[in-house]
Write the structure tokens for this entry.
Amino acid sequence: MKMLKFKKNQKGFTLVEVLLVVVILGILAAVALPRFLTTRDESQRRTCQSNLSAMNAAIEEYQFMNGTWPNTLADVTSDTSRFPDGAPVCPKNGTYSLDTTIKRAACSLAASDGHAL
């Protein structure tokens, strides 16, 4: 196997080559990071909407089974047959509550981040 022979004055990368690599990596990061953040936010919003749908279905089932609407969201989320892992949690740290006017679950981030149905 032949060994590569280096010239005596060639010992590594030049400063220009290293800077070029750093600039290229910076450009790639500048393109990828916003796309990643947008994808993450969209995923969190859709998860929250899915949680709201599940809780709204549980609210309607509660009304059907008991003949009355629940007073709090805990009345429906404490049902371990429907929510075996406990009450759903907003992935962006919003809080869920029961809107007693329209009898629907709501997220505290509905206005700011679109966490609404």
In short: Residues 15-66 form the longest helix (52 residues). The chain has a mean pLDDT of 89. The chain has one domain: 24-113. Residues 24-113 form a domain with the Pantoate--beta-alanine Ligase; Chain: A,domain 2 fold (CATH 3.30.1300).
